[in-house]
Design brief:
Elements lengths: L10 E2 L3 H8 L5 E6 L4 H16 L5 E6 L4 H6 L7 E7 L1 H5 L5 E8 L4 H10 L7
Parallel strand pairs: 1-3, 2-3
Antiparallel strand pairs: 2-4, 4-5
Length: 129
Amino acid sequence: MALFKRRPKPVHLESLDHLDDLARSGKPVLVDFFQFGCSPCQVMDGIVNELAEEFDGRAVVVKANVAKVPDVAAKFKVRSTPTFIILGISERAKANGRDVVTLRWRASGLVKKDVLAGQLLRTGADTSG
């Protein structure tokens, strides 16, 4: 019998292809672009970890180190950290039987947890959970 329940953690992004695979899950994908030595990133780290736990199975929470995935940061024109984006499948494309990943929301700097959670819900995270 395990004494401690394993908590869900954010997925650490490996590549642009990895992000595309995660986005095609059909769940909203929250990406936290961060870098080491960034004080606001450290403040947001705990909040992002809490969201990964709270939205487990309903959304995908991803941490993207801009030094390790510069191509992803360049694609989304990340100029400062932390930057948050939420990706989802376009409803119009879904109706046509295609999976087209689109940017649904974006913010930079310190963002309140309830704002991030609200945006995940607005972009399609299942409310039962």
